[in-house]
Structure formats: structure tokens, C-alpha cells
Amino acid sequence: MQAIDKDTVHRLCSGQVIVSLSTAVKELLENSLDSGATVIDIKLKDSGLTSISVSDNGYGIKELDYETLCRKHWTSKISCFEDLEGVNTFGFRGEALSSLCAVSKAVVTTATEETAPVGMKLEYDHNGEFVRKTPVAREKGTTVTLTELFAKWPVRVQDLRKNISREYLHLVGLVEQYAIISDQARITMTNQTKGGNTVSVRTPPQADRLGRLVAVLGAKIRPYMVLLDHRPAAETSDGLDLKIGGYISNTLPEAGRSGSDKQYFFVNGRPCDFPNAKKLVNELFRSHCPTKHPVFAIDISINAATIDVNLTPDKRTILIRHETELLNALKNALAGVLNPQESVFGINSSRVQTQLVSSNPANADNVVSDTQRDEGSARRILTETTSVPGVVMRSYAQNKTGAGQKRQTRDEQDFDTRPAAAKHKTSEQIAETTAAQITRSAVKENSVGNSSTVDQPRPLSKKLPPVVIGLCFDRVQSDTHDWTNLRSRLREKRERRAQLLEESQQLMIDAEEPDHAVVEGGISETNHEEASSALSRLIHKSDFAKMQVIGQFNRGFIIARLDQDLYIIDQHASDEKYNFEQLQQRAVISSQPLIRPAQLEMSIVDESVAIEYKETLMRNGFHITVDESLVPGKKISLLSQPFIDQTLFNQQDLMELVGKLCVNPESAPRCERARKMFASRACRKSTMIGDALNMKKMTAIVHHLSELDHPWNCPHGRPTMRHLYRLKKDMY
What we know:
This protein is of the alpha+beta class.
């Protein structure tokens, strides 16, 4: 054994601190915030491939610290380990600048309040040792410029160049978090490319938390954001000094996103990863809005002595001593803003109206106003609005009146306002009571030479056939049940089930025990999700091409064999999944041009994603144009919208696509409505249950499964295959 030399140790450790473009900018940004800066400018050239520059107006670096500025583990934040309990700065390890010197070429320009407008340009070598200083003009503050990032790490620099777009978007998302939480600093990030300068992040000065959130995520979210402000009782917080604040979108579908990329947690003002809390928030939100993910920025203030931030070099993983109490407090805070007032309905009071309708079938549904007169016969509609929303009961009676005969009305006793269907009356009983449920009716007649009169009508002589209009149809009937010999019939049913179970178990007595791998793989699971997951672990997609088709069962299932195992394959679900994935990959959606281009208001990140993946949006039917002269967030205009089967998609579908691209840029996403339409179309064109198939068709269906991305379920969730039987060795 031998000791590793100092230079190698320095490079090994530095490579663990600065691992990507995002962490390089993050360390510089945190240093600027720790210096008390109120204005921070982040400037990148070619998305950081050429250079990275972070400038601030903080208190600058004193001349006494020039030589030790970039040395490993030199810091002004703490002096001993015990100081960690009270640290209130982002950095404290003294590794950032030293590691940046190791992975890039670093130049620092700084000036203090005493030396401004004269500053110093400081240069350091890759070990963080001071090389030289040069006087320059500089206002109070510090600028750190990095070039040749990862030049000595050929694998990393190659990966950075290959995935620079993805790395840049990840960087923008990271800077957004600091822009939201840093109330006293105005943060701006620009990217200079051959096409010009692009502003990726810009926060207004002296803005409140909601204003900064809107500046980062877009103005459209403002109406949907709900304030979080919760402080648990002192007896339940157990000295945590806990407070939960921030904003979260409400549970309306248009307020959420298709992905979980706009969800931020802050603990004592520090952006962090808090997976348990994130899971809790998403579960509570999706219990009210299952199809969307919330947008939130939640700031948790807690006693610093109860948390540990020194777990990873990036300090985003935090250990909380009383995490259970914190999660309970978070759940209570969310319950107050997410839970809607459920089961509260406005019930209209019951009323009765009498209307006259022409007896002519062509005009049977046309209501005649009170001031109109029907010279011929008319039928009277007795309408009762019940207490059940959307359910109206009407009864019809034929009134034979002449041209000069007077129509009369009278007052009856008040009627019971309970829903008629809930009283368990027969049709005849309802018809008899309907006539007595009229409270008041005034009918006027206007004719030439005759004045209108109002008198008391004669009672209706005929029973009125009831008709239920609205949510319920043909439900006004008597319920009859045969309760005789109920106990004996239930006993016979149980005995028959027990007999069938015994017979099915008897059939398996001679069967060989299933293979250990099959049992461990969970193939025998009856739960759809667990079974499909087990199949993906035990069976590879390539195995479908090796399966031998035995035949068809019950004109709905294909029996196939792979070595010792027999599988039963759903012919409809398998063919449907193949057709669905073909549509997903190859279908180009038609689009409808707009008369006038619609300007879109998007967040800067969403706008950058939409511009970069313009071809993907076009394949989904959204044609956009980009005007680089406009301000960030308003550069994109929509030229056309997609349509399928006369269904026109809208801007909400576009934002759903962009959100999916933010989460997984390498995917070929479809919006949810298009996916459902593709699933429906694939279902209709696929082999159906009941179709008799020949060996060629069955083999094609089974082998097609080997070409799919996810062959285990159809688009609607039904499993395509289950394990059937493990053959004995002498049976094949």
C-alpha cells in the first residue's frame, strides 16, 4: 500500500463536488447570495460550454483573503463542527472554489466598498493556489468566470456536449428555485449563442414570494395559487419552532401540470430534495385531481438544531430529526387549502308550474306563453321540480276546451316535496297524487273581442301517466322482491360454490409444483399491476419471438409455450397494444390553421423546451413560430391546432405536451386526449374476442409483442398474458 499523492486526492474529491454544469453554477450562485448581494447576473456562452460568469454586488473579497480564497477547506462560514447547528449560509465546507479550480480555469474579479471603483483580477491554478493579481475597474462586488469546464475529464466533457440542451434546462430549473426563495436578490440568467442573447430567468426587484413565483413560472398560474400559512400548536410542535408557508396550486384540472417538474421544497430557505414530503403532497392533491400534478413552492422553517444538511456535497439531502411530526404538520396545512367543501349543494325549492302546449305533434315540445291562447284542444303539463338535482317529474292530461270555453285554475293544498321516486309508490299512486300537487296556476287567454279571465278549473278526470325527465328514466315503479325460502337458497348457493372450488382443486392434485423462479417472479399473482411487473422481471420481450403457438382457446385466447411453461395470451389486448404503439410512434396528427396566430404566455423554461422540441410539437399537430425580438415568455405564437375526429385540441393540451417534454425530453409524448383517441382507434381495428384465428395470425400477434416498448398491458390496463401451467419434463 502507498499513499495517494496530493494532486490526485484533490482531483478525485473535486470531481465529486462539481459533477455537472448545474452544480458549477449553483456553487457560484450560493456564494453570491451568502455575500449579501441584491443583484446577481449569471451569463453563459453557448449554454456554458464556452464560459460561465456569475457577477454580484456583494461585499467583495478582502485583500487579506486573496491567497487562501481557493484553497481546499478554507472558509469564513464556520470555525468548528459545532457551528453547523447555527449556520445560516448556503455554503460552509470551503470546497466550492477549490473544486471549480480543479475542473476548470477560474478567474475572480472583486472589489470591496473601500477599494471600489478599483478592483483586482485574481488568477488561480488548478490546485487553487494564487498565481497573480491585476488592477481593474470594478464596482463593489465579485465576478467569477469559468472556462474550459471538465477539460481534463474527457468522458464528462463529451457527455456535457452531447446532452448540453438537457443540462441547460436542468440548470434553469435549479436557478429558478433560488430565484423563488431569494426575496432580497434580483437574479438574472442569460445565455449567449450564435442567435443572440436569451434571458432564461429574470425576477423583478423587491417582489413578494407570489410575484417571484409568477415571474418564474408564468402569469397564468397566479389565479390558481393558494397561500400556505400554518404554524402548529406549541404543544404539538415539541420545540421544533415549525412554520409552513408558501404557495400551492388549487385542485382545478387547469391549475395542475402533467408532470411533477414544478415542485419546490425549501427548508430554512435552502432548496432541497424532500421525497417523503413530495410524495405526501402529490398523494393529497391527486386524491382531488387524479389526472394532474400540483405546482408548489413550500418553505419550511424549523429549528436548525433539529436538521442535518451535511450529508452530501451539494447539501440538497437533509436529515430531519422529527420528520414524522413535520409531515403531520404539512398534511394538516394542506388539508386546510386543498380539501374543497364537498357534499354541499344548492337545492332549488320545489315548485309547480302549469304550461299549455299545442296538441299538434310537430309543436308538442314548444311551450306557449301565458299570454297566448290556443284556439284548439291543448294538453296540460304538470311539472314538479323535485329536490333531486336534475330530476323533473311531468304529468300530462288532455283538456278538451272549445274556442270560447274558459280555462280555469285553482289552489290546492301544499304537496309533499320529497322525491317521488324515493317514496316507493306505484305508477298509479304517483299519478293520483300528482294532480293534487299543483299549488297555483294562472292561465290567461287573449283573443279578439274577448278579455282574459281566471276561474277555478274542474278536477282532472283521468289518471296522469308519469314521466321522469332528467337524470333518471323509467325508474318510477314499484320494487318487488321474493323473500320466500331466502335462507335455503343462500345455503344452496354456498354449497354449490364450495363444490366448484373442491373440484378445481382436485384437478391440480397431480400437477407438478411450479418452478421456483416462477413463484419468486410472482407470475401467479392475481393483481394486474403485480403480475405485469413480475412478467417484466422474469420474461424478456425477446422471449415472445421464441414462443411456440399451441392453439386458440374459446376464440379469445392464444395458448403458447416457452420451454416448460404454458402461457395464455389475450388476443384482443395483445393486438390492441401493438396497434396502439404503432399509432403512438407513427401517427402525424392533422392540424387546423388559425385565422390569426395566438401569442402564448409561457414560463421561460417551458418556452425554451417548446422551441427546442419544435418538431415534436409539429408532429402532434401544434405548429408554432418564434419571434426572437420579443421578451422571454412571449416569443412563441401558435399557428395551428391539431384535431382528431372533429375534436379540436387547445392550448392546455399544448402545455401538457411541453410539461411532459420537461420531465422526459427523450420521449415522444402525446397529450392525454390524443392517447385516449389512439387507444380507442387501436381497440376498434384490433382482433376481437370471438374471432377465429389461424396459426399464421396467432403467431403474428404473439411475435409482435417482442417489438413493443411495454407489451405487458393493453392501453386500457388489461394484462396481455398470464402464466398458465408448468409442464412436466416428460410432457414435452
